[in-house]
Amino acid sequence: MKRLAAAAALLIATPAFAQSEPTSPEPAGSDEIVVTGRGLSAPPGDAAYAVATLGADRLTDAESLEDALADVAGLAAFRRSDSRSAHPTSQGITLRGLGGNASSRALLLLDGVPQADPFGGWVAFPAYLPERLAEARVTRGGGSGYAGPGALAGTIELTSGGPDDLGRLGLGVDYGSRDSVDAFAVASAEGGPGFATLAASYARGGGFVPIIAEDRGPVDRAAPYEQASLALRGVIDLGGAELQANASGFRDRRDRGVDFTAIKSDGADASLRLVGRGRWSWSALAYLQTRAFASGFASVNDARTTVTPSLDQYSVPATGIGGRVELQPPVGANATLRLGADVRRVSGETQELFTYVAGLPTRRREAGGRSFTAGSFADLSLELGRITLDAGGRIDHWSLTAGRLIERPLAGGPAVTDLAFADRGGWEGSGRVGAAVKLGGGFGLRAAGYRGWRLPTLNELYRPFRAGADATAANPGLSPERLWGAEAGLDFAAGHALSLRVTGYWNRLGDAIANVTLAKGPGTFPGVGFVSAAGFYRQRQNLGAIEVHGIETDARLTEGDFAAQLSWALTDARVHAAGVAAPLEGLQPAQTARMSGSASLGWRHGDWRAAVTGRYVAPQYEDDLNSRRLASAVTVEAVASAPLGRDFAVEARGENLFDARVEAGISGPGTIERATPRTLWLGLRYRLR
Predict the structure, then answer these.
(1) Which residues have CB under 8 Å from 471's CB, separation 6+?
(2) From 612's CA, which of 269, 475, 674, 681 has a CA 20 to 30 Å away?
(3) pTM for the full model?
């Protein structure tokens, strides 16, 4: 009890991009507890898969977490806009061209806890201050059994930093273009058998006008934002096990550059994890997530001279609760076995005012439900000289319950729509097998195959929505998405100076969920009501499949104080569809670029550092019919830091230095929305050594 009390008091009181080499587990036979704040080590069998790691140096050099993740070619959010200007519901993340949907198809974890929004599957990027993280580990390819269900396109594992990563105290404040402020603080304290960390951030800005200059009208204005986050963490040795306690929260305010489009997003997370290391390694995790979301939507005429409210999504509460247990028994010097089980329960609903007449809503909508998954998994790695083998699998039971859609007139009277959807459930299997061979001379070969699955989100199942003049109906009958994939790769490493990784892959995503165009307005359509002549009527549907072939290349070269990095992805993604979706056959999935990449050059000498990064994204389509083409874009960003005495430094940053036009969306009448223009920052850093 004294150690538990100490853990509570402790909590309350207070390397660059590289190809990953899986960390070896703790030596068998050692029962010594080393307080690390981390979970169980990645198994040796991960060497068979396409893994890349962003170290603490790269994360802190980046403007945001999403900026750092952009270094991994093929990893993308649904929109090109970042979390200061994009609508939060468009920020689902995916890998390997498996786009076409705003819900995440990659599994994002922070210290083992799933991070996607429980209701909609998008990612609240303002919640993650890069300076509080030790690393981000990206595994391309699905079927990661021990990480959890939902890893269709891959897994992104974020790890919180400890005192060695954060230092005793770090402070930073930047002032930038358009009256923007960005500030953060990180701190750690070590005491007795553990440590505590604190991280906080605050950002606000006047924003830019999202619509490009030639398409703007009198209703368009800058879109301001204000965001904040706070994270507390305590880690303590309980004498045979390590207790990790986490509590965090975020606040996000932004709008879309016209009246009636205010967005509010808040969240709070808490988790407890016990980790035992030694001959019998084990882990037990429990977590709770709460989210509150609200968003206004507006209708703008073609001339952009008038704007009227069209929908007020005034409350979207959601909760995720779950846990997992893992056991790593001693099975031999050359083998690593992980066994475990996990469970997750999600509930959420949307409450909306809609069907506006003379600027006032006339109806109210409630839509939502619950989902549940429970699974067990096993993963075995074998190290046989130069050969590493891995096989893992899991079996999951899922259920969807209490689904409903209710629409009532605000003036009173009977419900216009009152639907209670049948409960349903099923079983899904997933897994992966892989092998890696060291050929000598720094060369190695990899090959893997996998199967993954994803349950539709409550948002996809039950909530109709509008984006500009377009309207999309929900579909409570959606089936889970199921993916089969295979890959092969060549690796080369020359010590720590040079590394190269090339991977070719094939993925087939069956029953892919997409927003399928069914008709063009004007007209009144089921599930959404009236759609104007400028809009399209769509419904979420399971397509036959999305099939993807691609090649990924990651390379890094270090020479003295200099480091160069390249990440490139070439993707050929095609839709297979029939029935009402037959017009989509052979087209590219929406918001999926055929090519993307980044290249950077960094220099670091003592406390002096500088880096420049260029990024390219090929043309892609806004819509499923491939009728609205977003142009390619090349952007350049840079950062430089110079010491001012022992503990202070001045830092300058630039985003989109050449002010390239990055097209992020096209609305029904052809109006183009852009991502962040040139943004310059100047700031001060303090680090207590």
Answers:
(1) 464, 465, 525, 528, 529, 531, 535, 536, 537, 538
(2) 674
(3) 0.91
Cis geometry, peptide bond prior to residue 522 (ω within 30 degrees of 0): yes
- In order of 17, 253, 515, the CA distances from 74 in angstroms are 15, 29, 22
434: closest CA among 451, 419, 417? 451
Choice among 192-196, 272-276, 665-669, 684-688 with the minimum mean pLDDT: 665-669
477 DSSP 8-state letter: T
8 Å CB contact between 107 and 115: no
What is the number of alpha carbons within 13 Å of residue 617 lying toward its C-beta? 29
Instruction: Evaluate whether 469 touches 534 at the Cβ level (below 8 Å).
Output: yes
Q: Which two tokens stand for residue 349?
A: 């609903």
Whole-angstrom distance, CA of residue 466 vs CA of residue 528: 8
Phi/psi at 579 (nearest 5 deg)?
65, -135
Of the candidates 542, 597, 682, which has an alpha carbon nearest to the alpha carbon of residue 101?
542
pLDDT in tens, 133-180: 999 999 998 877 788 888 889 999 999 999 999 999 999 999 999 999
Q: From the CB of residue 341, how many other CB atoms can be counted at a distance below 10 Å?
A: 14
What is the pLDDT, as a whole number, of residue 149?
A: 87
3-state DSSP assignment of residue 89: helix
Q: Is the pLDDT confidence value at 199 over 80?
A: yes
Q: What is the largest CA-CA distance in the chain?
A: 78
Q: Is the distance from CB of 656 to CB of 637 less than 8 angstroms?
A: yes
Amino acid at 229: S
CA distances from 495 to 22, 33, 142, 441, 446 (A): 16, 31, 29, 10, 19
Contact 320, 114 (CB under 8 A): yes
Model confidence at 6: pLDDT above 50: no
Q: Which two tokens stand for residue 215?
A: 């398409």
